[in-house]
Design a protein that fits this description.
By secondary structure, this protein is an alpha/beta fold. It is built from ten helices and seven strands. The longest helix is centred in the middle third of the chain and has 14 residues, at 111-124.
Amino acid sequence: MGMSLARIFGIALDVLFGVRESCPACGRLGSANSLCSECMDLIPMARPPICSVCGTPLRGGAGRGDAEREVCAGCRGIRHYFECARAPAIYEGAAREHVHDLKYRARVEIVPGLSRMMALLAVRTGMADKCDSAVPVPLHPDKLARRGFNQAELLARSVAMLLGIPVIPEALSRRASTGTQTFLDRRRRRDNVLRAFVCDEPARVAGRTVLLIDDVITSGATADGCARALLRSGASKVRVLAFAVSVADERDWAPSRNSFGGAVVS
Ligand SMILES: [Zn+2]
Ligand SMILES: [Zn+2]
């Protein structure tokens, strides 16, 4: 695809400073810094009830008592390293399309629109309070080489600018993969991911509250791996902010069904 990092940042900067005055998603007249209202209406939003820990929507949990304290099936069986995770959108439909446009079609002009939604959520929920810096989830080295850019880093730079906090793009790195994960069970896979990240900037995260940025939260294992590395390097807290969150566990859609045969990881 041959798009240099400089060119991508160049486009991102053009967009940030409003050279284009059209919706970055559909091209209709509007602001380049936010999606137009038609595009916003198409995005499935992660509205309550959501898991109070990982932010996943609890569709089956609606009406089951105090929405503020609802916890999804996944989070009931796992001790997360991050304090909380939130995303404005559900990883479905238009939200999934935007992420795919960014990641696989290098449509980096969408970054300001998505990161604006993320920053607004961080402010509204108090996640941004006393946050010292933003750190992107690093891309796997092979993927970075192939894609040429890390979408989480683009989002982190933009979110950090909107929140007025510094970004530490090189804080984390991901160890090269050690073979296929396909035949490993859920617990073994999670253990591998937990150990896959290294903090390369301990002096800059020690004693700090870090806002970890990713495009999508799925099982939370990646975020936990990053949070673990940051905490081991002395970070005091890690909060996770993504653009979209997937429905992590089918049990939250149909509470009576246990699709994993009881194998909840610890
Ligand atoms: Zn639009
Ligand atoms: Zn959860």
